[in-house]
């Protein structure tokens, strides 16, 4: 089954995976306190605004560190609002609503999640027909296609590297790359799986 890009969170660990039929020549790199999706060196040039973006950021908030991750440019305003002290629910809702679903041929939803240092995790999506934000107390997934509303999902990963690998290895079609994040006693750890 092709579900496109997806996030899974719950509640100590999370992952984001790029799955793509149209732009498979992408990878995740670590740069400037963010994990960034972008084209590989051999990728054909494109002016598509949805191909490159920060997919995961860990930021300092008034209540401690929080991780924000998702499938597009909305990750940056979510992270910025968290830094300013917005509650995670408000940061997700306002950013997703402001940027809205992607205006491409498929009306692709925007998806995102947060994991707070205080133990709170949330997941959300904005589609052409809905804005959904839910608190997570068990592993939950939302994808751009087919599974475009948050749903309970079996995801057993211990640590960021395991989360990235587990997301990459899920049987959904057209895996390209994945990022993982996990809350630890020393803050957040992140990991990248580019399927090398």
From TrEMBL:
The keyword Hydrolase applies. GO terms for molecular function: IMP cyclohydrolase activity. Pathway: Purine metabolism; IMP biosynthesis via de novo pathway; IMP from 5-formamido-1-(5-phospho-D-ribosyl)imidazole-4-carboxamide: step 1/1. It is an enzyme of class 3 (hydrolase). Coiled coil: none annotated. One of its GO terms (biological process) is 'de novo' IMP biosynthetic process. Belongs to the archaeal IMP cyclohydrolase family. Catalyzes the cyclization of 5-formylamidoimidazole-4-carboxamide ribonucleotide to IMP. This is IMP cyclohydrolase. The lineage of its organism: Archaea, Methanobacteriati, Methanobacteriota, Stenosarchaea group, Halobacteria. The gene is purO.
């Amino acid at each position: 089954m092709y579900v496109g890009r997806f996030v899974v969170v719950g509640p100590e660990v999370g992952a984001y995976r790029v799955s793509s039929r149209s732009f498979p020549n992408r990878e995740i790199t670590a740069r400037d306190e963010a994990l960034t999706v972008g084209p590989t060196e051999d990728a054909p040039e494109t002016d598509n605004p949805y191909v490159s973006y920060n997919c995961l950021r860990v930021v300092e908030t008034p209540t401690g560190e929080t991780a924000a991750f998702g499938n597009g440019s909305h990750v940056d305003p979510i992270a910025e609002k968290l830094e300013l002290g917005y509650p995670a629910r408000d940061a997700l809702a306002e950013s997703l609503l402001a940027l809205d679903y992607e205006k491409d041929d498929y009306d692709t939803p925007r998806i995102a999640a947060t994991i707070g240092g205080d133990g709170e995790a949330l997941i959300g999506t904005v589609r052409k027909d809905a804005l959904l934000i839910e608190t997570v107390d068990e592993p939950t997934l939302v994808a751009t296609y087919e599974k475009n509303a948050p749903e309970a999902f079996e995801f057993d990963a211990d640590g960021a590297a395991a989360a990235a690998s587990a997301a990459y290895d899920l049987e959904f079609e057209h895996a390209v790359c994945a990022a993982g994040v996990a809350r630890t006693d020393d803050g957040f750890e992140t990991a990248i799986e580019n399927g090398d």
